[in-house]
Design a protein that fits this description.
8-stranded parallel β-sheet, alpha/beta, 18% strand, TIM Barrel, 10 strands
Length: 238
């Protein structure tokens, strides 16, 4: 089994911040990565994790994922990952590169800058896997959503940006259905991550991979429990 950790923003925010849970402070993130290193774990991409699962080389690997492509990944997460020789997967909202989290407009959630195409290319050059998080971050099961644009056109946009294939997808809000999951291999994706809780294993559908959420309130002891025990597996489906 391989834990796939789910991060969003690495940023210190006030206690009254709406949706504070998507942010992890830089200090907490540094400590979490140090704990992984001290325990002998290596942070890797989703694609590397799946390859290891297939070959049985999954011991001491933790996949690190970052949804949305916030600019603070570059300033707060990447230096720490490089320090420990870790990789990760960033899921990018293709039509909003260099913009902000427009999908949160009107919700009271604060505006947060997203990485530009140049910044994404820089992360890619440092060994970070780039995945697709749709074109505009909609709820994909909405009847008005253009699935070809959100799943395929977005993938092609990112491939043009990087000059490299995009292999992994992440469902916005974790919302999807079987028909949507069935489109992904047809569009050239080799995996997809969800917000279903648990550690990934060979029993999981590669287009419905579970993850372990890491939030602002994930203290060191809870981080270790999530990583080292079946704590998250017991919460699958909740």
């Amino acid at each position: 089994m391989i834990p796939i950790l789910m991060y969003h923003s690495i940023k210190r925010v006030n206690r009254n911040e709406i949706m504070r849970s998507i942010h992890v402070s830089p200090q907490s993130f540094k400590l979490q990565m140090l704990l992984l290193k001290l325990l002998g774990y290596r942070g890797c991409s989703v694609t590397d994790a799946l390859r290891a699962l297939k070959t049985g080389g999954d011991k001491k690997l933790v996949a690190l994922t970052f949804d949305d492509g916030y600019a603070n990944f570059l300033t707060e997460a990447l230096p720490t990952l490089e320090r420990y020789g870790f990789s990760a997967t960033i899921y990018i909202v293709a039509d909003l590169m260099g913009d902000s989290n427009r999908w949160d407009d009107g919700t009271g959630i604060s505006e947060n800058q997203l990485m530009s195409s140049n910044e994404i290319r820089y992360c890619f050059s440092k060994g970070i896997e780039i995945g697709c998080h749709s074109a505009t971050h909609p709820k994909l099961t909405n009847d008005k959503v253009n699935l070809e644009r959100e799943l395929l056109t977005s993938k092609r946009t990112l491939e043009r940006t990087l000059g490299s294939p995009i292999n992994t997808f992440c469902y916005p809000y974790g919302i999807y259905n079987q028909a949507i999951a069935d489109l992904l291999p047809l569009y050239g994706y080799s995996s997809a991550t969800t917000m279903v809780r648990g550690r990934a294993s060979t029993l999981d559908n590669i287009y419905e991979l579970p993850r372990i959420p890491v939030n602002w309130h994930t203290m060191p002891h809870l981080f270790l429990i999530k990583l080292l025990t079946s704590y998250e597996d017991r919460r699958r489906g909740r």
